Amino acid sequence: MANEILTAEQIAERTKDTNGVANIKAINALYRAQDESALYPINGRYNVTTRAINRVRKLARSNGGLYGLEYCYALEYEMQLLVNYEVHA
Fold this sequence. Notes:
By secondary structure, the chain is mainly alpha-helical.
């Protein structure tokens, strides 16, 4: 468990010195480091952070690259969709 939960803006700020794929990997590493969704997998099947990363990667491949704060916001949005869908399903 991470001591501090970082916001999308803080993660983007901490990774701003990296570019391209290195930026995405650094952002993913920070999200995974503070991830606790493995403790509460959705329907016992999947980790929200990993699922969101995979969805955003697919989106970026088909629509062009996402980096920095834009990538962080996309991850946050996907995580919210995944959790809210399961809560309301």
